[in-house]
Structures are given as structure tokens and as C-alpha cells.
Amino acid sequence: MPERKIRVMVAKPGLDGHDRGARILARCFRDAGFEVIYTGCHQTPEQVAAAAIQEDVDLVGLSCLSGAHRILFPRVVELLREKNASDITVIGGGIIPEQDFQMLYDAGIQAIFTPGASLDSIVDWIRTHIQARN
Amino acid sequence: MTQNTQKICAGDVRSASRLIRDLEDRRPEARLRLRQIFPHTGRSFIIGITGSPGAGKSTLTDALIGELRKQQKTVGVLAVDPSSPFSGGALLGDRVRMLRHAEDEGVFIRSLATRGALGGLARAAGDAIHVMEAMGKDVILVETVGIGQQELDIIHHAHSIIVVLVPGMGDEIQTMKAGVMEIADVFVINKADRPGARQLRTELASLLNVSPHGPQDWIPPIVSIGNLYEPENFAKKTAELMDAVAKHHAHLVVSGQLAERTERKAVMEITDALRACILEPVLERLIADGELKKIAKRIQSRETDPFTEAEAIARRFLKTGEPS
Q1: Domains of chain A
Q2: Is the same domain home to B71 and B189?
Q3: Do B281 and B184 share a structural domain?
Q4: Residue at a domain's end among B225, B255, B285
Q5: Residue B35 covered by a domain
Q6: Contact yes or no for B89 and A4 at CB 8 A
Q7: In this structure, is residue B264 part of a structural domain?
Q8: Per the CB < 8 Å rule, is A55 touching B84?
Q9: Which residues of chain B neighbour A29 with C-beta distances below 8 Å?
Q10: B181 vs A102, B75, B285, CA distance in Å?
């Protein structure tokens, strides 16, 4: 049987237009053999959650450089739960102070990557933690 | 009706998008589900949108979604982008242009990667169309990958095809060539505010004039669409496009061509299904037990030829009925 393809979505919720990091990641995921849905900037958490379900992704990677991650990231997780899609893993990245990590983990964000994280370490994390589902 | 079929027919997005994923990943159980929903398919109007990379297919798709929603129609969208021949990965970016519809429950947008298919669509595109049909979508928009001259698989799936052209892609000889220029039911000259648009329109019109057609035949209309950043004009033009497609649909019904097109689609579907249940299992078996390589070696050294070998294999498998 052919193997499962890993599908991920890279999204930027909120009013932050700095998408260079998100684009680099999207490219890097493509080169890692994942199917990447790139949805661009300026999205509401509602749009992110709806798109993740329509696309049936295994993982959503959120990027935020504006400081609004404390509100936006947990909201995405909450919306996915409401829609019975809590099996979709949510990770986050961007300018995120260390003192916020615990709060985000508690809210259901499963991993956080900040400036300096290598591309390989992010791809490895996904390969280890996402078994393209059965 | 199984629970899953029921959910899909009731329009449940989660069940539908999972089934599409399973069909893309070729899970055997997904084929069974597809059989179960098949009786509920075949009632949607399917519009294909094709053209070169960057011609504006996704932006026009977004505009058409808007037009269809004004008419209270439910819409399914399949947006295909290429898979990498090296990594097998893909960057599916068509949604970026359609963000405003993400939360509209009357719109279901799904991106597909080609996964090696070369006809401008994904291998599972036909299956995904069926899933959206079973969901009861009134209209399904199928956006192909950016194509060249002859990635034309869309003709087997869509009832009406929009070919999107942009100015500056070559002289009028290009418009005379076989392939993509022949499949349009409606032409769009997009980015028509750019130099060369008027000339392209003239060339296209003269091409259509000299194409042989009877008095009852459909002549593809040409819709020139200008800059997205002049919203009023853009909206007027996209409404004109929607209107042209609706007229073509009416023509298909009245002329009986709709029946011809659905028959063509059925022939393709049984051909594909035969390939999947005869050729693929045989190949899988030959690859698994290493026989394919051995035969290839003998062909390479000219001990035998591919035709004799293929006939022998066909006789062997068809007679024994193996693999089941």
C-alpha cells in the first residue's frame, strides 16, 4: 500500500505581515516531502481552523511576530476542538518570550520554535510526532 | 446507507475532506466508500478553469465563488498545484487568493497536489469531484495546475471549460495551434489592461471566425478582464464571465451536448477503473517478485521483445484470474 503523505498548513493569524519566515518554512516543508498548504497573512483564527479542516491537514504551523500569540494561538486550538478536530496538531513559532511557553503549552500548542531554531529541527519534530494517520 | 455516506451526503466537511485524503493516499477502504457515494453523484455543474501559471486562475476562481454565492449556490472548489518530482512534496498556494470564503459554510475549498499526474490535474481529482457532488454542491470549480499546451485532462471532468489567456505570450500562430486553444468553452483575456490585450482579442476573434461551425454551434465568447485593483470594473467583468458560463451551460442542455459530455466522462471512468483493477495489480505483483526487472534485462539484451512478454503476461494473468 502506498505510504501516507504528511499534509501541513502554514498560516499567519492576526495583523502581522512579516511572512518571510513562514514562506521559508513552507518551502522547507515542501522539500522535506510534505504537502504544504500556504494560506498567507492576515487571517482570523476562524479562517485558519476552517481551512485546516477543509484541507484535512495533520498539523497547523502558526507564525506570529507581533506579540499577539497569547490570544491567537490558543484560539485556533479551541476552535479546532469545537469542530471535533483536536487530532490536528498545532505548533507555533515567531517572536515568543520564554515566559509565555508554559501558557501556550497549557493551551494545547504542542511545540514552539523561536528564532535560531534550525529548519531541520522543525522537520524532525514533525516527522517524529506526526504519524500520517491511519 | 452507511453512517459515513450519510454524513458526506449531509455535507459534513470533516468526513468529506478525510475521504478525499484517503482517496489521494489510495487506501483500499476508500474505494469502497466511493462506491457507496457514487449513486449520489452526477448532479453538480462542473466548471474547469485552466491556463498558464500566473495567468490569474485562482483570482478568477475566487471571483466566480463570489458570483455563485450571490445566486445562493453552494460551491465546491478543487485547486490543483504541482508536486515536486524530487521531494514528492508540494506547495499548495491557491487558497491565498480565496481567503475571504474560508468561513462561508456554503463553500468547500480543497487543494490537491498532482502526485505525478501529468495531465494538469491530480490523480484523485475525479474522485474528489465525486465526493463534492455527493455533498450536494450545486457547482464545482476545478482549477488546474498552470498548464502549457496540452495538459488537458480537465476535458474529461468539466462540463464547461474556461481557458485563461494573458497578453504577451506569443504571436497569432500560437492561437492557431492544437491543444488548449481547442478546449475552451469560454475564453478569458486576463490582465487586459496590459499591452497586447487588444491584439490578442482580435487574433482570437479571427481564429474563432474561421473555425468551422454550424448555425447551432457554440462559439466561445471572449471576456476581457482588467485590473483587480479597479474593483468596480473587475466585478462587472467577472459577472460577465459568470454569465457567459451560464449561457454555455444552457446551450449544453438544449443541444444535447451535456449528455455527450457525461457519456465521455463515464467512458473515461470505466477505463480508469479497469486500469486500476487489471493493470495495477499485475504490475504490483511483477514488481514485488522481481519478475519485471528480469524481463527488462532480457529486453535490454534483445533476447526478447516487450510485446511478446506483455502478451505472455496477459495470457497468464487473465487465464488464472490472478491476482484477484
Answers
A1: 7-129 (3.40.50.280)
A2: yes
A3: no
A4: B255
A5: no
A6: no
A7: no
A8: no
A9: 89
A10: 58, 27, 41
**B311 with B241, same domain?**
no
State ipTM. 0.93
Per-residue pLDDT for B321 more than 70? no
First to last CA, chain B: 27
A86-100, B106-120, B244-258, B310-324: lowest mean pLDDT where?
B310-324
Say yes or no: B184 and B314 in one domain.
no
Residue B324 confidence (pLDDT) = 44
Q: Which of A63, A131, A73, A82 is nearest to A104 (CA)?
A: A73
Of the partner residues A30, A54, A56, the one whose CB lies closest to the CB of residue B87 = A30
Q: What is the domain range of residue B282?
A: 269-320
Sheet holding B160-165, edge to edge: B107-113, B75-81, B139-143, B45-51, B160-165, B186-190, B222-225
Closest alpha carbon within chain B to A53: B14
Note if the pTM is more than 0.95: no
Assess whether B208 and B291 both reside in one domain. no
Closest chain A residue to B97 measured between Cα atoms? A39
CB pair distance less than 8 Å for B93 and A35: no
Please state the rounded mean pLDDT for residues B28-53: 94
Q: Do A54 and B108 touch (CB under 8 A)?
A: yes
At B150, the pLDDT band (50, 70, 90 cuts) reads: confident
Write out chain A residues lying below 8 Å of B84, CB-based. 30-31, 33
CA distance A84 to chain B (A): 9
C-alpha cell at A6: 504528511
Residue B8 within any structural domain of the chain:
no
Model confidence at B322, pLDDT cuts 50, 70, 90, reads low
Domain count, chain B: 2
Q: Is the peptide bond before B281 cis (omega within 30 degrees of 0)?
A: no
R_g of chain B computed on alpha carbons: 22
pLDDT digits (tens, 9 = 90+) for A107-116: 999 999 999 9
The answer to whether residue B263 is domain-embedded is: no
Mean pLDDT of A30-39: 96
